[in-house]
C-alpha cells in the first residue's frame, strides 16, 4: 500500500515458473517476485529419442529477458547496496549496484551496507526494514545479527569468480548516524594508510617554511626509483609501476585488517572511542608488518639494502604523519560526551 519497493499490480506478479507467457526481449518486471526470479538467460536442450529413451545431445544458451536500460534497480531491488555516481551522463545509471571486486574485500565498502550517506551510498532496502522493526520495538536493538553477502562477477556472460562474505551486524549501527560516522572514519584511515603501498607522491603530509604543501614521494616510489636508477637519474615510470606491481606490497596489508574490522564493528556500539583507538593501532601494526615483509622479499644486495633503508625512513615518517591527525582527534573524542543516537 506504500508502493514499496515500487507500485505494481500484485495479481500480475508471478514467479517465472508460473508466468506461462513466452520469453520476450525487453520488458519491465511485473512485480517484485517477477524481479527475484528473472530469467536473464535461456537454455534450449537439443535431444534425440533412442531405444534407451530421450537423450540430450547438446544445449543452446542465449539471452533471456532484459530490463530496459532506463528502468533502474535502485530503490527496487531490496537486497543490494548502491553507490551514487557523482557525474552520471545522460542515459547512464546514476546508482549502480555495489559489486564484488576480485582483489577488494567487501568490508572496505561496508559503509554502503549499513547506512545511506549523503546521497553517496544507498543501503539495501532490507536494512531499512530492519531499522523500521527496531524503531517499532519489534526487534531488540542489542541483539547481534550477521550479514552475509553472495555475489559473482561475469565478463561477457562468463563467470570468472564468485564469493561469499560475512560480517557482524549489531543493529545499533543501522539507526545511529554517529556510529556510522565512526565506520566511515575507520575505513578512511585504512584507505589513507593503504596509499603508502602505491606509487606516486602525497601533497598533504609536509609543508615548507612558507607554509606551502610539498609533494612527498611515497615509500614504494622511493624504493623502486632507488633500485632502478640509483643516484640522480630518473627511472622510466613504467618500470617503476611494474616493479611495485610485482612486489604486491599491499597483499599482506588488507587481509590482515579483516578480522580487526569485524572486532571493531562488535565493539563500536558500546565503546565507540575505544573501538576507534584499537582500530587505529591495528591499522598501524598491519601496515608495518606488510612493509617489512615487502622489503624482506627483495634481494640483499647493497643497492637493495640502501633502497630499503630510504624507503623505510619515508614509510615511518609518512605513517606517523597520517596517524597523528587521527590520534589527535581520537584524544579529543576520548574527553567528549558519549556518542548519542540520532534517529
Task: Please provide a written account of the structure.
The chain is α+β, with helices and mostly antiparallel strands. It contains ten helices and eight strands. The chain has a two-stranded antiparallel ribbon with strand order 1-2. A two-stranded antiparallel ribbon has the order 3-4. A hairpin with a 2-residue loop joins strand 1 and strand 2. Helix 6 runs antiparallel to helix 10 and helix 9 runs antiparallel to helix 10 (302-334). The radius of gyration is 26 Å and the shape is globular. The protein starts with 15 loop residues before the first helix and ends in a 9-residue tail after the last helix. 24% of the residues are buried.
Structural class: alpha+beta
* Strand and helix order: HHEEEHEHEEHEEHHHHH
Count of beta strands:
8
Number of helices: 10
Strand content: 15-25%
Global mean pLDDT: 88
The major β-sheet equals: 2 strands, antiparallel
Amino acid at each position: 500500500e506504500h508502493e514499496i519497493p515500487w507500485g505494481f499490480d500484485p495479481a500480475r506478479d508471478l514467479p517465472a515458473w508460473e508466468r506461462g507467457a513466452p520469453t520476450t526481449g525487453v520488458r519491465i518486471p511485473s512485480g517484485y517476485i517477477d524481479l527475484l526470479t528473472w530469467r536473464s538467460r535461456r537454455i534450449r536442450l537439443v535431444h534425440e529419442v533412442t531405444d534407451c529413451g530421450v537423450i540430450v545431445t547438446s544445449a543452446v544458451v542465449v539471452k533471456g529477458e532484459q530490463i530496459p536500460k532506463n528502468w533502474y534497480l535502485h530503490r527496487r531491488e531490496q537486497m543490494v547496496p548502491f553507490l551514487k555516481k557523482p557525474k552520471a551522463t545522460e542515459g547512464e545509471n546514476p546508482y549502480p549496484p555495489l559489486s564484488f571486486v576480485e582483489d577488494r574485500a567487501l568490508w572496505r565498502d561496508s559503509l554502503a551496507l549499513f547506512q545511506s550517506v549523503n546521497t553517496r551510498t544507498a543501503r539495501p532496502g532490507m536494512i531499512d526494514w530492519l531499522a523500521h522493526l527496531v524503531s517499532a520495538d519489534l526487534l531488540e536493538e542489542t541483539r547481534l545479527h550477521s550479514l552475509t553477502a553472495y555475489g559473482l562477477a561475469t565478463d561477457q556472460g562468463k563467470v570468472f569468480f564468485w564469493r561469499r562474505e560475512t560480517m557482524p551486524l549489531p543493529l545499533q549501527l543501522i539507526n545511529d548516524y554517529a556510529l556510522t560516522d565512526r565506520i566511515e572514519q575507520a575505513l578512511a584511515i585504512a584507505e589513507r594508510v593503504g596509499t603508502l603501498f602505491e606509487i606516486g607522491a602525497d601533497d598533504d603530509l609536509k609543508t615548507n617554511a612558507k607554509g606551502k604543501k610539498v609533494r612527498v614521494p611515497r615509500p614504494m616510489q622511493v624504493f623502486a626509483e632507488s633500485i632502478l636508477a640509483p643516484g640522480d637519474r630518473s627511472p622510466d615510470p613504467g618500470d617503476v609501476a611494474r616493479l611495485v606491481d610485482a612486489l604486491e606490497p599491499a597483499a599482506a596489508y588488507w587481509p590482515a585488517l579483516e578480522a580487526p574490522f569485524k572486532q571493531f564493528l562488535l565493539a563500536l556500539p558500546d565503546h565507540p572511542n575505544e573501538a576507534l583507538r584499537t582500530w587505529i593501532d591495528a591499522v598501524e601494526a598491519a601496515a608495518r608488518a606488510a612493509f617489512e615483509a615487502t622489503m624482506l622479499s627483495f634481494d640483499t644486495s647493497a643497492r637493495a639494502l640502501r633502497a630499503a633503508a630510504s624507503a623505510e625512513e619515508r614509510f615511518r615518517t609518512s605513517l606517523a604523519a597520517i596517524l597523528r591527525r587521527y590520534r589527535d582527534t581520537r584524544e579529543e573524542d576520548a574527553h567528549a560526551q558519549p556518542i548519542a543516537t540520532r534517529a
